[in-house]
Amino acid sequence: MLLVICEDEKIANPTEQDISRALRFLDETSNVAFASLEHDDMNYLLVTGDQRHGFRLEYQSGSTQEHFAALELTAIDHTIRVFVLYLHGDSDWRGLVVWKKGVPPLKRIRAGRP
After folding, report:
1. CB 61: neighbour CB atoms within 10 A?
2. Contact at 8 Å (CB) between 70 and 58?
3. Element spanning 29, H or E
4. Most CB within 10 Å of its CB: which of 26, 83, 110, 114?
């Protein structure tokens, strides 16, 4: 598993503390506005936003046809909980958020990829 913070910092085999620290550090007014937890390029959980405005979660599972985005913004503690469950392979993370399928992957847009 790889924790990626704004494509600039990458932490292999992150801990719960790494996730908490990274998500609390996100700030939309700076260049540090998103982080992802990745198995690989096609399987990841991504968050954008910050503590002031809320966080938008999205995930992809195997292909771009299996891309989902949260319908509502989440608070920091809830966002960290989702990430920690994902880190540990606990499928309960999906039930903590209401998801909508078919939203364009923000990760690819932010990273400047087609």
Report:
1. 14
2. yes
3. none
4. 83
- CA dist 28 and 46 (Å) reads 15
Domain count, the chain: 1
Please give the residue range of the domain that contains residue 40. Answer: 2-105
What is the overall mean pLDDT for the chain? 88
Residue range 12-24, pLDDT digits in tens: 999 999 999 999 9
pLDDT confidence of residue 112: 37
Q: What torsion, rounded to 10 degrees, do the Cα atoms 54, 97, 79, 34 define? A: -70
In this structure, is residue 114 part of a structural domain?
no
Establish if 71 belongs to a structural domain.
yes
The b-or-e profile of 63-82 (16+ CB within 10 A means b, else e) is eeeebbbbeeebebeebbbb
